[in-house]
């Protein structure tokens, strides 16, 4: 039985690698890719999702456009990391895959109502605006979701857009607050994990040595994407965030964490978007999240590189 997933995303080079990993993995049935504003505005993230599927040779994938801005706050983007196109590093032609006419939020709701209860996993790679809007518009979908696996948050590592907030949560903290308080059980791949997964030269070279067009594109994307965080952190390579969501689905044994309570700060300007992680259980708040803290980074890159080699050249 394939695992049915919806990928919610704001591509972004790291989102792109996550999408390619999912499309290269026969265990997964990608029911659709829903896009939103995040790393760059929506008109580019939806176009980028279509380009990425064409890189994978998958013109069959359904791609939807969703939220063009956060629920409450003004949109904050990250062109300084991803470039003006969001996929800087390799120039791709305008996509031929059509954008689906249905809104992403309606697609999420319709799919969860139509598919057998507890069989659809939501893989979120960006802000949680689409998911929050779907849950608010149709609360009946909450118990029908198998699980939400998200890249977001940070605790031991702090934040990456403010000292305490991670970008996906910070962009739309009100959406995150809705999702974290919807009675769902969330699996979180935070900065505490992704900062251990660095795109070192050796690892990018291994991807480039696959010697296919798609591997050349991935190596070019990562070479561009890493320059911002290499300068920021002084490391060989940058944290590769979003593919960890898909890798967790494929090989959860690469990761370890703890069930605990995670709440979202939405009141303080100083700590807006902070994920407050009760790692040591000092409160009686519900344990709403499986919060990952450790990862086998070499195991992750072995999986990623092997799967990327399965993509059509
Ligand atoms: O903080 C990292 C996250 O923000 C990743 O999902 C990256 O693509 C950006 O969306
Ligand atoms: Ca992302």
TrEMBL record:
Protein keywords: Glycosidase, Hydrolase
Nucleotidyltransferase recorded as keyword: no
All residue ranges annotated as the Inosine/uridine-preferring nucleoside hydrolase domain in the record: 5-301
Any GO molecular function: hydrolase activity
Domain of life: Bacteria
SUPFAM superfamilies xref list: Nucleoside hydrolase (SSF53590)
Name recorded for this polypeptide: Nucleoside hydrolase
Organism of origin: Paenochrobactrum glaciei
Native organism taxonomy: Bacteria, Pseudomonadati, Pseudomonadota, Alphaproteobacteria, Hyphomicrobiales
